[in-house]
Amino acid sequence: MALGRFLVICWVIWFSCFVGFEFGASQTQTPTLAPEEWEALKLIAAKLKKNWDFSVNPCTKWNTSMEHDTMNAVACNCTNTCHVTAIYIKSEGLQGVLPPELAQLPYLQIIDLSRNYLSGTIPPEWGAMKLTNISLMANRLTGPIPKEFGNITTLVDLTLEVNNLSGNIPNELGKLINLRKLVLSSNNFTGPFPESLSKLVSLMDLRISDNKFTGRIPSLIQNWKNLTRLNMQASGFEGPIPSEIFLLEKLTDLRISDINGPEAPFPLLSNMRSMKYLMLRSCNINGTLPEYLGQMTQMKTLDLSFNKLIGEIPKNFTNLLKKVDCIFLTGNLLSGLVPSWMLEKGDANIDLSFNNFTTNSQGQGSYCSQKKRNLFRSYFLGKNSSAAVLCQQELPCKRYGYKLHINCGGGEETIGNYIYAADQNHIDPSTSSAMTSQSKDVWALSNTGYFTDEIMFTNERNYSSLGRRIFDVYIQGQWVLKDFNIVDKAGGAGKPFIKTIDQVNVTDGTLEIRFYWAGKGTTAIPERGVYGPLVSAISVEPNFPIPSEGRKVSTGVVAGIVVSVLAFIFLVLGILWWKGYLGCKNTMDKDLRGLDLQTGSFTLRQIKAATNNFDAANKIGEGGFGSVYKGLLSDGTIIAVKQLSSKSKQGNREFVNEIGMISALQHPHLVKLYGCCIEGNQLLLVYEYMENNSLARALFGPEEYQLKLDWPTRHKICVGIARGLAYLHEESRLKIVHRDIKATNILLDKNLNPKISDFGLAKLDDEEDTHISTRIAGTFGYMAPEYAMRGYLTDKADVYSFGVVTLEIVSGRSNTSFRPKEERIYLLDWALILKEKGNLMDLKDPRLGSDFNREEVMAMINVALMCTNPCAQLRPPMSAVVSMIEGRLPIHEFVSEPSRFSDKEKDKELMNYYQQNQDHSISESQTQRMLNDGPWTGSSTSAHDLYPINLDSEYLNHRV
């Protein structure tokens, strides 16, 4: 028994000793890196030009701690044999190329080579790896993203921003179903987003700013319901922002800027209650500010600048003060009183500059120079003329000044014979202030946004020299430099570059120099931030003899100024502003003072600059009240300027009426009024420009201007006109009768979408009255009988005109010049004759050939005949017309039914009226109104074109 116990004890002791020996051995023998991976690292080091020390263990001796974003580390899994699982070489100044040999590390999961100077292309061999993270940010890489990356289905993070990568995004990336972060900003990617990316349902962070993508913002974003961050600043995509964005309710960071495309209402974002950073900057957004923004109480930054927002600031925006740092609303058309809480001193930066606010108190001027508040040019004349210059009175400019030299961002310096004034004021994100130097020169600065971060450019071959400072320069509203890259122009860092702009006209004592950052350039070098304009100094010199002291210059003198922008490498001048200036310096006509305008004002200087001083080469039409010019605003927006003739007293009423009507209307099928200009005897309306002119010119203008309109396009045009009229009659807050619907007043944009224009004759429709008795105004051939004969006006007059225009669209013929077989007959009458004969299809435009939908053509003609029923009560409302054209309502066959007159009486009255118009001339002013062919093109009609049928036509004797 004792022997047995002894043996057990000995066995336990021996076992313990054995285990202890083995454990100790394992502690002293460190696993080594697999030999094949050791050799692969040597090849990788050679390609990267990395001087790794291969005399030590890479898994333990190559690692350094992260310091100022630099890192040199190789991570290994050493369970048995060591295998490389991650390589971090950040900010190490690598100047080699990306090694394909990384694919020889089978256990590698993370590659981070960010902030180096690596060049070449991304190896497609990496597509065979099982990577989870790839970060190549801030290098000099070129070429496309390899399509082989679609095979890395384990990938979670792909960061390629700040390179020179190009090409389309490969369809194969749609297979990366585990991808959570995709950062492609600051490259040269092109083309649309492939539909396959809709499968990236795990995506949480997408950044594609500063690229050259094409097409509209993809609606496939609706599939990325896990997104918390979406950045699309200057991505190249066009608007509008798709409505599907509403589905991304987890978003906390949404930044979209500088998108072209049609105007659109504010996108619906009401379910994004956790939003912290919302930028919708220069996105062509119209309408009012939605109240739900005030419920986003986590908001830190709200930037809605440079849009076309109207109306007042919602009262519940005061809720944003809990956490908000910045509110940027500059460059809109906002009106009403500025909320008191926005004027009071606080920590938040608030920019309301360049808007149309009104004020009831001169005391609000005391807020103009308050820190963190920018109210420069934020007030509109409105009903208080003293408010027009609010926040400009505090700029004590010398009456006669000819020179100015500023050392931007630095102290006073003397260079040669010039003293450069100091500019060392702290610039808040929202600033408007006046600066005065010892030499008594005075200038003003208006700053919007965090765009003044300083950056040092160097000639060293490392990532810090890869930064791109790209901005635009405007002089006197003229866009003189686009995508200006200062380092490229200077030929490298550390070199001065002087940009001289000659012959700048200064007519009102004010010289404006603006620097605008449009979301382009790098935002991650040297660290993540926003790096806007880079200017060292501004020098202004006259190019004419300066008058002697005390001698005044006559107001007629136009001073040509030489403006030199001296661009060194490191001093920063704040962004002055903006895209689309709508400042207010007006001498309003008294008729406009009583209007609650919801549009902006332009200066005459801006209009002249846009139209090249009303150059005849830019003239695109002649209307009854004046000429129409094509223009180009400083931000690249193409406009149409309707110039009211100063001799036309009759037209003043129509001018005022048109401003009042259109300023209150917002609809995709109504032409957009950007604003007006009233200075001296100049009365100007500024519209959006319509690339394809008028429907009349497209259908039956000179042959060289006609457009080939297929049937789907014609159908789309009819639907669009009908929707626009339905809005005017039934949906708008103001119920409006246009009174002059005709083909020349239907304009076509670049996509051939129709827009109703020329509201000079429009009338408000009082719903309490059955009709309006008014003097007749309109265009012969389009006026409804009850209106033309008796001045009996309802919205059914527009319905009648729509019917006539619809017949023109189907037939391709003008109703005022249609002459089948040399007969003199009205197009509508010809349609009725063809209907009686059962030959309605003969009305179809022969240019359509056989490529059309017969049922749709017949339906359209029947709708047109219903709309032109002689009995106004039997014409359908425009909402019903829309439903019938779109196939949602049945179309009943048109049958002319008697109204309160018998057919014989109607025919007699029609003939009498026609004879009267043959025998009597009409006044010149009325003729001008009748012949007014809208803002684009002119044509001619005559008095007898009202109902131009032969009095002995058999139609009068056989009319149903």
Report on the architecture of this protein.
- The protein is globular, with a radius of gyration of 35 Å.
- Helix 12 packs antiparallel against helix 14 (854-867).
- It has 18 helices and 46 strands.
- Strand 25 and strand 26 form a beta hairpin.
Kindly report the name of the CATH homologous superfamily of the domain at 711-899 and 931-945: Transferase(Phosphotransferase) domain 1
Poorly predicted ranges (pLDDT <50, ≥5 residues)? Answer: 1-28, 381-397, 429-441, 450-465, 550-598, 766-774, 897-960
Please estimate the helix content. Answer: 10-25%
What structural class do the secondary elements suggest? alpha/beta
Number of strand segments: 46
| Average pLDDT taken over every residue | 73
CATH architecture of the domain at 711-899 and 931-945: Orthogonal Bundle
Strand neighbour order, sheet with most strands? 1-2-3-5-7-9-11-13-14-16-18-20-22-23
Q: Give the C-alpha Rg.
A: 35 Å
Summarize the entry for a quick read:
The chain is α/β, with parallel strands linked by helices.
Keywords:
single chain; 960 residues; alpha/beta; Leucine-rich repeat, LRR (right-handed beta-alpha superhelix); Phosphorylase Kinase, domain 1; 20% helix; globular; disordered N terminus; disordered C terminus; serine/threonine-protein kinase; kinase; ATP-binding; transmembrane helix; ATP binding
